[in-house]
Amino acid sequence: MNTTAAPSRNGVSLEAHLAERIAAGGKVLLPYVTAGITDDWVDLVEAVIDAGADAVEIGIPFSDPAMDGTTIQEASVVALDRGITPADALDQLRGREYGVPLIAMTYYNLVYRYGHERFAADAAAAGVRATILPDLPMEQAGDWAEAGAKHGIENILLAAPVTSDDRLAQVVENTAGFVYVVSTMGTTGERGEVDDAASVLARRVKAAGDRPAVVGFGISGPATAVAASRESDGVIVASALMRKVLNGESVDQAASFVAEMRSALDKEYPVEK
């Protein structure tokens, strides 16, 4: 497969954008926002960018999110009950300049029903520079990866602690943007500490090639973000952030949580000037 994305609208791919911080010794921070969870969800996207996000993962709700834990499932139900559709999500993102790449996280059935070419074009127009489709096997991702690449959209693949060395080498070769390091077997969700398997897997990813390794699953705040970044290139925070929104916290309060993680990461892993 190994489909390389064309330059994005601003001329920089997701991987190249993240590489700037990583090369300088820093760690990337990628918050997740469920599309449609509130009326002001796009304002939240902008707020977490202002708080220091290097990219933002946009969750496009799906009725059967098999990879997601209870918090993201609840966020998806709320958004779906409010009437959000994939087209709505992309349309509401369109028309703003975000300054960092957006990553669409959803399930392949939505992309397939939308149509590869149409989804790629609409997503690119909305600022999306990569996708995470956890239910699309690497061996079957070629058609989507090719369609996305024409519009500057990279397809990110996942690796789990049980991934064999041979398959991990294939994931590293065929992913674009970064390798999504699944910190533990199971679904997404907050955890008090990150499984040691995440560090082991991040080291294996980095030994297998030159793709960034970014840890997801279980990032609950500054301490777990710092711990998970010791061997990886950074973290994704999803459930912990969406739990704050579900609990009624404002855009500013949720963004402040992201700012705390940004500050902790930069203190522990300062970018070289």
Summarize the structure in words.
- The protein has 273 residues and is an alpha/beta fold.
- The protein has a single domain, classed as Aldolase class I (TIM Barrel).
- 44% of the residues lie in helices and 14% in strands.
- It is built from twelve helices and eight strands.
- It has helices at 14-23, 41-50, 70-81, 86-93, 108-114, 116-125, 142-149, 165-174, 196-208, 222-228, 239-246, 251-268, and strands spanning 28-34, 56-59, 102-105, 128-132, 154-159, 179-182, 213-216, 234-237.
- Strands 7-6-5-4-3-2-1-8 form an eight-stranded parallel β-sheet.
- Strand 1, helix 2 and strand 2 form a beta-alpha-beta unit.
- Helix 3 (70-81) crosses helix 11 and helix 6 packs parallel to helix 7.
- The longest helix has 18 residues, at 251-268.
- The N and C termini lie far apart (37 Å).
- The relative contact order is 0.18.
Tell me, rounded to a whole number, the average pLDDT: 91
| N to C succession of SSEs | HEHEHHEHHEHEHEHEHEHH
In whole angstroms, the N-to-C terminal distance is: 37 Å
What fraction strand?
5-15%
CATH homology group: Aldolase class I
Uncertain spans, ≥5 residues at pLDDT below 50?
6-10, 185-192
Helix content: 40-55%
Summed up, the domain count is 1
CATH topology category name: TIM Barrel
Number of helical segments with 4 or more residues = 12
- The secondary structure category is alpha/beta
Query: Can you summarize the main beta sheet?
Result: 8 strands, parallel
Give me the side-by-side strand order of the main sheet. 7-6-5-4-3-2-1-8
Task: Return the CATH architecture.
Answer: Alpha-Beta Barrel
The CATH class is Alpha Beta
The best one-word shape is: globular
Radius of gyration: 17 Å
Q: How many distinct beta strands? A: 8
